[in-house]
Amino acid sequence: MDSSKLGLGIFTAMSHTKSKTKYGIMLQTIDFKARNNSKLALVLLHGYGANAEDLAPLVPILKQDNDCWAYVPQAPLMPKALAAFGGRAWFDLDISLLESRASDPDGPLFDEAHLKRLQKVVDKEILPFLDNIAKDGTKICLGGFSQGAMLALDLLLRHRPSYIQCMILFSGAWPYIKTPDFKSDETCPVFVSHGVSDSVLSIRHSRRMVDELRLRKFQVRQNEFSGGHEIPPHIVDQAITFTSSTFFHS
Prior knowledge:
Layout: E1 14-20, E2 26-32, E3 40-45, H1 52-55, H2 58-63, E4 69-73, H3 80-83, H4 95-102, H5 112-134, E5 139-145, H6 147-158, E6 164-170, E7 189-195, H7 203-215, E8 219-225, H8 233-248
Parallel strand pairs: 3-4, 3-5, 5-6, 6-7, 7-8
Antiparallel strand pairs: 1-2, 2-4
Helix pairs in contact: 5-6
């Protein structure tokens, strides 16, 4: 991501707030206010080891001159391994276990325990947070990076709320052990990007995700690039084109 594209005044419409879900969980968010009474909202979920400030600079780039609300929630967990540099997690990871599973070229990414953690976060934190944003009829473009992308994917497939208009999955993965029964046959446009040299999440997990989405008739724009676990500038440009056609001017 090229921060030089950001003007000096981009954060004038930004604030930090806390939102309580119906389960009593408090999510701290970085909010970008709409200029008018917009019924569009962009929501970005950061990855494991990052925090809300990691994706916040991406918001004004994706919005361009379009009027919408934007929210970058911060994961509530701060595992000891991440605390020294302010890293957060939506759910904890057993890194040694995941590394051992990665040696199996055909094996799933997660075990049952990791998948349950992921789905608990979706059900108790992410879904209520989005339901609250959309209660007045607001349509949402939901995006995420890495762990955040997996949360977004699970929410889309298991819940498929009608207010999700499109989705952006940066460096995500197919987290399922078995193909679950999903809630709905409704689809929406999905942007997927992944580096072919990603050493954190293998490209094979992204390709499996794309195959599964296409089997379910999702309109997937797949963008593989020469690189690792990152969002390079040309991928940001492609994401801008995607949101312009599927969200802001659909």
